[in-house]
Amino acid sequence: ADRSRGKERGAVLLAHPWLEWGQAYFHRRGRIEALRAAGYHVLTFDLSGFGGSAPPKGFWDRDLEDALGALVARAGGLPLGFWGVSSGGYWGHVLMSRRTPFCAAVFEDVSPHLIEWSWRQAPAGRLFYLIFRTFMRRAYTYLDLRRHAGALGARAVAYIGGTDDPGIPAADHRRLAELAQAELLLVPGAGHLAAIKNANAEVLALALATLEKGLGPSLGEPRA
Questions:
Q1: φ and ψ at 178, to 5 degrees?
Q2: What is the percent of the chain where pLDDT is above 70?
Q3: Which side of the chain, N or C, has fewer Cβ within a 10 Å radius?
């Protein structure tokens, strides 16, 4: 966990993408520094099977729920925000649609369905995906974020992505943002996980604005 600088405004949970180094991903591109400078405490963690964590024993929304419990215990009643990238954001939708303690959420490079993303990005497994969709329809339907995006419960939500992400068409970003009544930043020419690289200032600015809208007023401003 990282403590905020100056007055405490809230606490933010960061959920990493499907990369082997897990939470270490967030020590790049300035997310943590920007959040701390704005007055937010930050908690990062390793999803099961990544970084220094144990192998998974279920879907990764359980890991997020455990991390949320740790954040609540440390936050001391501060309002909570969420920032999930790729798979971290995906499982954040699943958690938030059934439990909504987060006042604001930022989703970066999130596909509306893991199987649809895998169909495009890992075509060698298409027979398995077809079998899963055909014979496990309830699970397939449950994993569709288009069924969750409208029930996130946060006061402010934003989506961020790139126009050239081969696994997530721009239309998918737009659909999730529409369903969640959220802000949307599509970075021209950016591929997967590249929006924050190609438009770092814009991504950080939207994330901070979303957290401010959901968690409360700027430093020194009275609450309405």
A1: -65, -45
A2: 93
A3: C
Q: C-alpha angle with apex 208: 167 to 102, nearest 5 degrees?
A: 80
Ranges of beta strands (E only) in 131-202 are 156-162, 183-187
pLDDT digits (tens, 9 = 90+) for 113-159: 999 999 999 999 999 999 999 999 999 999 999 999 999 999 999 99
Q: State the pLDDT at residue 223.
A: 32
Q: Is residue 224 over pLDDT 60? A: no
d(CA 141, CA 155): 26
Rg (CA), the chain: 17
pTM, two decimal places: 0.91
Dihedral sign from CA coordinates of 131, 135, 139, 145: positive
What is the rounded CA–CA span in Å between residue 44 and residue 186? 25
CA distances to 40, 145, 190 from 160, rounded to whole Å, are 20, 15, 11
Statement: residue 45 has pLDDT above 80:
yes
Band of residue 72 on the pLDDT scale cut at 50, 70, 90: very high
Question: 59-68 — which CB contacts under 8 Å span 24+ positions?
Answer: 59/91, 59/94, 60/87, 60/91, 61/91, 61/92, 61/94, 61/95, 63/91, 64/13, 64/15, 64/88, 64/91, 64/92, 64/95, 65/95, 65/99, 67/13, 67/15, 67/43, 68/13, 68/95, 68/99, 68/101
Q: How far apart are CA 75 and CA 77, in angstroms?
A: 6
